[in-house]
Amino acid sequence: MGYGIRSGTIRTFWPDDTDSTIYIATYTSLTLEELMDKIDDKWPGASRSNITISSEKIHTDCLGYDLYDPGDYTDFIVITRIPGA
Prior knowledge:
mainly beta; 39% strand; single chain
């Protein structure tokens, strides 16, 4: 989705999946099997040893404001396929 505007003036951001990365907001409830299905759908036949799973807190709301507000950040599960693998 990338960058957007909410309520006329509030800048927002939502990360887009790429060829090598999947972003899943942590408020999305997934079983491990569903998570593995997403990996298999994105990269059929990819070796599990070439996949990393991490977490990342990304600034998604009220971009450009000076004050830190933890509510403006979203926690994501980030699944990455190692390039060339």
